[in-house]
Design brief:
- The complex is a heterodimer of chains A (about 450) and B (about 725).
- Chain A has about 450 residues and is mainly beta.
- Chain A has 4 helices and 31 strands.
- Chain A has helices at about 1-20, 65-70, 260-265, 430-455, and strands spanning about 25-35, 40-50, 55-65, 70-80, 85-95, 105-115, 120-130, 135, 140, 150-155, 160-170, 175-180, 185-190, 190-200, 210-215, 220-230, 235-245, 250, 275-280, 285-290, 295, 300, 310, 325-335, 340, 345-350, 360-370, 375-380, 385-390, 400-410, 420-425.
- In chain A, a hairpin with a 3-residue loop joins strand 16 and strand 17.
- Residues about 1-20 of chain A have low confidence and may be disordered.
- By secondary structure, chain B is mainly alpha-helical.
- A 5-stranded mixed sheet of chain B has the order 6-5-7-11-10, sandwiched between helices. Chain B has a two-stranded antiparallel ribbon with strand order 1-2.
- In chain B, helix 16 runs antiparallel to helix 17.
- The radius of gyration of chain B is 29 Å and the shape is globular.
- Classes of the chains: A mainly beta (about 450), B mainly alpha (about 725).
- Chains A and B meet through helix 3, strand 21 and strand 24 of A and helix 26 and strand 10 of B.
- Chain A: It is found in: Endoplasmic reticulum membrane.
- Chain A: This is Dolichyl-diphosphooligosaccharide--protein glycosyltransferase subunit 1.
Chain lengths: ~450, ~725
């Protein structure tokens, strides 16, 4: 099987070398894949050399179709300087299509800061994050069993370029590794499995490996998160977050025994989790934690200058496949998040992503509810999201509030970066609601005045 | 609480507001309106303890059904609600919700909700439901004021409003979150009575019409309307007998009865019962009697001959009674008039339920009332009530006769059933208010006339002090004055004790949602047991959506509302056999129970168990009722099998049937491995204070699916039958 893939990839590589834009080769590559949580983080260090005649402005990163489906984020940085004085320069990475991609390979295009002249080398650091890439095996476990998962990857880096030398490290959460595919030279030491070094691998080389290991870290997956950020110009930002959380690991099978769970916690239910941590902004106030049927009393808030931490527990511990839905709401002072742009527009500067640590969000929707009367909303984000506009009615609204809806799939904590929503707003609209209240009271008094003075009797007394 | 100084302030108004240039009448109005306003607010905020202590949530059992139906009504609209067939309860029978409930409460809450939304207040329906009861309690204080004003005077009205605002007997069923029929029904009840008394007093058709609509609202809200439709005819009968028949009464009763009946028949749950069932026959009989009376009156007017009339009277009355009696007899015999229901019987004969309908007797709020709970719920009103009756009899009128009758009958019912204390509360408050108001008024006028006469000698009468005590004032004795002061101080002391008592009772006893349990920890900290919601939410999230849950009927409404799962039986105890089947399953051995559960398609079984926390109202303590109700239908279940020498035990001395029945097994499964209290053996049941008798429980057909963190709710999965192949 493996041999066939080898032949196939070599054939594809030969074919591709004609269509490839630049003549680059990777002199040295090191890949470290962190498997300690359910979010798979891969760090690539590539030393790229231009062996062609023309300067190269960019290079390609290749991923298998499965990886593309689960890829949450790709970042690249160029390293300049020697060991002590390293400087990192973020590079622009965007998905791209290649006309003759073999086996539906997906690509990302990394643009160099300055085009690589012939013979020049550059060192790149690439980080990519994969979600839902650990497959529980066995897929159903009982309460006392611990969770074993498969991770499938290649021992060599998939790349459209020739790689002279490469090594891959897998870091597992514990020393318990059931098995791993051996591709010589490969060995394991404690929590680390090392593949390589491999010399001179042709473009599109691929050597599938499976690592079967224990992973009891909480597989907290938020199937859907809707965050509503409501701006009130009266001084606060109200954030309401609707979570649909599930345990994405091996499904729980059979009995849940409370005796075992509470008395033998270390061995019973080791793959389950019952505590979650949300990192909220500093100066957060009026925090609540509830669900459809009422308040949940197991939460604890620590406020600090840099961040606040909300430690909370769902109503029940989550075993594989169990779900919990809940709502977290809080309020933050407006002055820290709403600013006036030089052109007179206002903008909200808030953090994207999910406040829960180490969780995957399958579908994230952020709704920024602008005050009534706001116009021309536009959102600025460092990555692409689906944008939409809606109208929401809240207290004392007549025309409704404009809602900027930002929607993104497959979100990981690395996406917790600031984003901005710009809009224009006339301060006079702020007086609309107080005016309505005042006039309502006024009319009540006028009506009662009129009622007292009007005689509605048909017969004169 | 300051509002209770209502009547003295009223009288002192000419002093305290002298600086303001207002006429006495205006001052009085201002004072009255502001006191009423304060009482209105007080009645509302006194009921918010539960929200502050816990959270804005629906309490107890029945309110969860009401909440669920209100949610349905607001989401799907009225017609869908009216035609709702609920397949989530009483599996596999289902329940026709629209035809088996009193929609008044839900429609009221939905209307409030829609109004608020129309006014651009985007509140959640839950908040509306939670605050419906306090809102209507506030409205009740207004009605109490007008009622008091009608039967006595404005002072009595104000005192009545203040008393009813904080009376524990009423607060017990109207705290925020207690979203039950009684929440609006007491308002409707008092409103109907007030409008009827007003109609009788004025003989006006419009007031009678108003009372008919009040009655309609009451019928739509609560089954307790039967009390109105029996008390009003009884009152009319008493007026007829005491020779107080008048054209006003004729107009008021006929209009109210006919229109009220037609309107009441529009409620599907009542329908033709209103003309066919035994409970409503008294009203019809009195209605016919009224016509006979009117006819006789007319004949008397026409004849102008006393002797002839006497003969005629004898003949008519005899034949009327004869015809009525025959009609009733034939109707009952042919089944056209249905006999009295068990609930009605148990009101007239308190021992009836115990012998014949265990399902009614099993509910704690249907027990006969203990003296202590009267004291708890009425406090000083218990002593003021007879005094008020005395004043009422001293100044007998149509209105006071009504309140006396209302007070006496409802107090009797309150003695029969704990929950009916609620119905008696308005009457007790009104009559006590008369006592307070009359006493205070007499005493203050005694004080003030004495001060005034020598000083100013002015002829300016104090607006409202035209009381009978004026005559006795002429002999001015210093002793009287001191006595009056002492008595006044005594009254205020009593009233302030009442206020303190009410606040204490409300905050301590009546503001617990009973879903969330709170206890004091070893260090004085508050511990919350939120196990019910934990289990219900677990069911909601982690079981198949079509799963059927079997539990004792107490938890049915909560499981459907919070767990969103189908239940076998619930708190609407309409099918005794079905409940008995569940009772039988719970009290059988596991394999017998398994057959019953298979036949009912049960997927999960839920039991409530207090052995770890010491929570005493759990299923083991309710178990004998399951046996009794089950045994009432299935004679295989015999109560003595579960008792040892007539004693209910769970320890080693318990009967073998008890130790191996399904309920015992489910409650104590693996409990024997647990140390609940330091220094006690394993398997020590803290609710009953014994070490359990069967520690080695093996389950064959069920498996533990979930147990909450404090073990209060335990859920078991019913295993599918093993494959024979």
């Amino acid at each position: 099987m493996a041999a066939r893939i080898w032949i196939f990839s070599v054939a594809v590589a030969l074919f591709l070398s004609f269509s490839s834009g630049h003549d680059l080769q990777i002199v040295n590559a090191e890949r470290r894949i962190d498997l300690s949580s359910h979010i798979v983080k891969a760090f690539l260090t590539l030393k790229v050399e231009n062996i062609g005649k023309d300067p190269a402005a960019d290079m390609l990163l290749a991923f298998t179709p499965t990886q593309i489906k689960h890829l949450s984020m790709v970042q690249a940085m160029a390293i300049t300087g020697k060991k002590k004085k390293k400087t990192y320069l973020p590079l622009d990475v965007k998905p791209t299509e290649q006309p003759d991609a073999p086996n539906d390979t997906g690509y990302f295009l990394v643009s160099f800061a300055t085009p690589l002249t012939p013979g020049e080398t550059v060192t790149l650091e690439v980080l990519y994050i994969l979600t839902h890439s650990l497959e529980p095996f066995p897929s159903e476990i009982a309460q006392s069993e611990s969770q074993l998962v498969y991770y499938r990857d290649s021992a060599v880096i998939l790349s459209p370029y020739h790689i002279k030398q490469q090594t891959t490290f897998f870091k597992t959460p514990s020393a318990r590794v059931e098995s791993f595919t051996s591709v010589d030279p490969a060995n394991r030491a404690g929590k680390e499995i090392k593949y390589g070094p491999y010399e001179d691998r042709a473009p599109y080389s691929y050597a599938p490996v499976i690592v079967h290991f224990e992973n009891n870290s909480p597989f907290a997956v938020v199937e859907e998160l809707v965050r509503e950020i409501e701006i009130s110009h009266w001084g606060s930002l109200q954030i309401t977050e609707n979570y649909r959380l599930t345990h994405g690991g091996a499904r729980h099978k059979g009995v849940f025994s409370r005796v075992d769970y509470q008395s033998r916690r270390s061995i019973s239910g080791s793959s389950s989790f019952n505590a979650l941590l949300a990192v909220l902004p500093p100066k957060v106030n009026s925090v609540y934690y509830r669900d459809n049927i009422g308040n949940i009393s197991t939460s604890h808030l620590r406020t600090g200058f840099k961040k606040s931490e909300l430690e909370f527990e769902p109503r029940y511990p989550l075993f594989g496949g169990w779900r919990a839905t809940f709502i977290i709401g809080y309020r933050v002072p407006l002055e820290d998040y709403l600013f006036e742009a030089p052109d007179g527009r206002r903008y909200l500067n808030f953090t994207f992503g999910c406040p829960l640590v180490e969780t995957i969000v399958n579908k994230l929707t952020i709704k920024v509810v602008l005050p009534e009367g706001s116009k021309d909303p536009s959102a600025v984000l460092p990555f692409t999201v689906n944008q939409d506009l809606q109208v929401k009615y809240s207290y004392l609204d007549i025309v409704g509030r404009t809602v900027v809806v930002l929607q993104k799939d497959n979100v990981v904590p690395t996406h917790n970066v600031p984003f901005q929503v710009y809009y224009t707003f006339k301060p006079i609209y702020m007086l609309a609601e107080p005016f309505m209240l005042v006039s309502a009271f006024f009319f009540v008094f006028v009506a009662s005045l009129a009622y007292v003075h009007i005689d509605l009797n048909i017969v004169k007394k | 609480m300051a509002a209770k100084k209502a009547s003295p302030d009223l009288l002192n108004s000419s002093f305290s507001f002298k600086s303001l240039k207002l006429k006495t009448k205006q001052q009085e109005l201002l004072l009255r309106v502001s006191i009423l306003g304060l009482v209105y607010v007080l009645a509302f905020i006194a009921r918010l303890f539960s929200v502050l202590r816990y959270e804005s949530m629906i309490h107890e059992f029945d309110p969860y059904f009401n909440y669920r139906t209100t949610l349905f009504l607001t989401e799907k609209g009225f017609y869908e609600f009216w035609n709702w067939f609920d397949s989530e309860s009483w599996y596999p029978l289902g329940r026709i919700i629209g035809g088996t409930l009193y929609p008044g409460l839900m429609v009221t809450a939905a209307l409030i909700y829609w109004t608020l939304r129309f006014l651009r207040f985007f509140v959640h329906i839950r908040e509306v439901c939670v605050l419906t009861a306090p809102f209507f309690a506030s409205n009740t204080t207004l009605v109490a004021y007008f009622f008091g004003k009608e039967i006595w005077d404005t002072g009595a009205g104000l005192v009545a409003a203040a008393l009813i605002a904080i009376c524990p007997g009423y607060i017990s069923r109207s705290v925020a979150g207690s979203y039950d029929n009684e929440a609006v029904a007491i308002f409707a009840l008092l409103l109907t009575f007030y409008l009827f008394v007003k109609a009788v007093k004025t003989g006006s058709l419009s007031w009678a019409l108003g009372s008919a609509f009040g009655y309609f609202y009451m019928v739509s809200a609560w089954g307790g309307y039967v009390f109105i439709i029996n008390l009003v005819p009884l009152y009319v009968l008493v007026l007829l007998i005491t020779g107080r028949y008048s054209m006003r009464l004729y107009v008021a009763y006929n209009c109210m009865y006919i229109l009220g009946m037609l309107l009441a028949m529009q409620i599907r749950f009542v329908g033709f019962q209103h003309v066919q069932s035994g409970e409503h026959m008294a009203a019809m009989g009195v209605f016919l009697l009224m016509q006979v009376f009117y006819f006789l009156d007319w004949v008397k007017h026409q004849l102008n001959d006393t002797k002839l009339f006497q003969t005629f009277l004898r003949i008519t009355v005899t034949s009327a009674i004869l015809v009525g009696g025959i009609a009733l007899g034939v109707g009952t015999a042919s089944g056209y008039i249905s006999p009295w229901t068990g609930r009605f019987y148990s009101l007239l004969d308190p021992t009836y339920a115990k012998d014949h309908i265990p399902i009614i007797a099993s509910v704690s709020e249907h027990q006969p009332t203990a003296w202590s709970s009267f004291m708890f719920d009425y406090h000083i009103l218990l002593f003021l009530f007879p005094a008020g009756l005395y004043f009422c009899f001293k100044r007998l009128s149509d209105a006071t006769i009504f309140i006396v009758m209302y007070g006496l009958t409802s107090l009797y019912f309150a003695g029969v059933m704990v929950r009916l204390i609620l119905v008696a509360t308005p009457a007790v408050c009104l009559i006590s208010a008369i006592a307070v108001s009359a006493t205070v008024k007499n005493l203050t006028s005694l004080l003030r006339t004495k001060q005034k006469v020598p000083q100013t000698g002015s002829t300016k009468g104090v607006g409202s002090s035209k009381s009978s005590s004026k005559v006795t004032l002429d002999q001015s004795q210093p002793f009287h004055k001191n006595g009056a002061i002492a008595l006044l101080v005594g009254v205020f002391y009593l009233l302030s004790r009442y206020a303190i008592h009410c606040t204490w009772v409300t905050s301590e006893a009546y503001s617990s949602p009973s879903i969330v349990l709170a206890a004091r920890g070893a260090h004085g900290n508050r511990i919350i047991f939120d196990d019910y919601r934990e289990a219900y939410y677990w069911l909601r999230q982690n079981t198949p959506t079509d799963a059927k849950v079997m539990s004792w009927w107490d938890y049915g409404y909560q499981i459907t509302a919070m767990g969103n799962r189908t239940v076998i039986v619930d708190n609407n105890t309409w099918n005794n056999t079905h409940i008995a089947t569940v009772g039988r399953a719970m009290s059988s051995y596991e394999d017998e129970a398994y057959d019953i559960m298979r036949s009912l398609d049960v997927n999960y079984v839920l039991v409530v168990f207090g052995g770890v926390t010491g929570y005493s109202s759990d299923d083991i303590n309710k178990f004998l009722w399951m046996v009794r109700i089950g045994g009432g239908v299935y004679p295989v279940i015999k109560e003595p099998d579960y008792l040892v020498n007539g004693e209910f035990r769970v320890d080693k001395g318990a009967s073998p049937k008890m130790l191996n029945c399904l309920m015992y097994k489910l409650c104590y499964y693996r409990f024997g491995e647990l140390v609940t209290e330091y220094g006690k053996p394993t398997g020590y049941d803290r609710a009953r204070g014994v070490e359990i008798g069967n520690k080695d429980i093996k389950l064959e057909h069920l498996e533990e699916a979930y147990t909450t963190s404090n073990w209060i709710v335990r859920v078991y999965r019913v295993k599918p039958p093993t494959n024979m192949l």
